Amino acid sequence: MINKFTLEYAQQLDAQDPIAHMRDEFHIPKQANGEDEIYLCGNSLGLQPKRTAEYLNYELTQWQKLGVKGHFSGEFPWMPYHEFLAEESAKLVGAKPIEVVCMNSLTANLHFMMVSFYQPTTKRHKILIEEHAFPSDHYAVESQIKFHGYNPQDSMLLVKPRDDEDTIRTEDILTIIEEQGDEIALILLPGVQYYTGEVFDMQAITQAGHNQGCMVGFDLAHAAGNIVMQLHDWNVDFAVWCSYKYLNSGPGSVAGCFVHEKHHNNKDLPRFAGWWGHNKETRFEMENTFIPMQSTEAWQLSNPPILSLAAIRASLDTVKQAGGIEVLRTKSIQLTAYMRECLEQELGDKISIITPKSSKASGAQLSIIVYGDVDGKAVFDAIEAKGVTCDFRHPNVIRVAPVPLYNSYQDAYKFVNILKEALS
Length: 424
Known about the structure:
Layout: H1 7-16, E1 38-39, H2 51-66, H3 86-93, E2 100-102, H4 106-117, E3 126-130, H5 135-147, H6 152-155, E4 156-159, H7 170-180, E5 184-190, H8 202-211, E6 215-219, H9 231-234, E7 238-241, E8 256-259, H10 306-322, H11 325-347, E9 351-353, E10 366-370, H12 376-385, E11 388-389, E12 391-393, E13 397-400, H13 409-423
Parallel strand pairs: 1-11, 3-4, 3-5, 5-6, 6-7
Antiparallel strand pairs: 2-8, 7-8, 9-10, 10-13, 12-13
């Protein structure tokens, strides 16, 4: 039987990896000794593509040379700049280009989407989210419920794992929808749960919600650039995502938004409007009657920050160079499986992995809990001191994200070896 937990075996896997060269497209942080960090934190902030500086500098030069004329001049004029991102963004989430736009921040987009898609009534006023939702999502939902005059205690419907389980069963979500669907106005769940790394069955949830007359949206912060999705075909009403995790566009970069085309011509759908969502053919006539574009662009408010969009364009071009999300997902499944196998082989009696084992139910993340009385934060600090960058989530979870664009099988091997030393 082959021992896979060796440096030589990891090097062999890297030699066989068809996109191993993509690591050279990124700046890898260095340790004090000059060696590459073992960077496993792309689920929090992705690394910088080397082409990013070139794309940013081009726009800085345009601004320097052209001033306001840069809105209409050059290879990538600023006025339609967001349009240059639509095709590749759409491929990432399985949408039509007219269904996606890069705008705002993720939580701002959540609020703007709920303005349109959360319309509570006396009978149907509940929002279904998961109990351990990312705090920003929880705050946004709670505040929207209060804004409409309802009590979160009555209107926020929380789904959680069963006792002694770490992840949420799809059948439990579907059961809640079936039993309480006529009271649910909106289902808002993650594509990938940030804490456990569990992938939700978005297609089944959307269909079940629509069968009960619910609107269905997803927070794809941990899904965009991580897993393959088909938002259009799944008939999802809306989705939002950030671009600085698996999409590597820099801290706080502009977010993304999807609205299914079936909603584009609905004149009765409420929305907060701004002039960047107005029909671009007549926008500069400066009239006071809002005429929305027949696309997700209609939800835009203001002209976007071009430097941030340039960083997103660099990231999307890097994904395109690698062959697209399907190619990344193929490596991701293999790389994450290798790391899991090594962890279970070497540390199975000392840790548990709460991320589902099935590749259908997990992405590029493993959430690790240390057994017994061992302090997980102390273990995290110990491996960080040895050159590993990952993150810790209370009360006792170490999250590691082997990202297919720039992480190697050697990274996985070295991480497991360092964790093994820390636990011994």
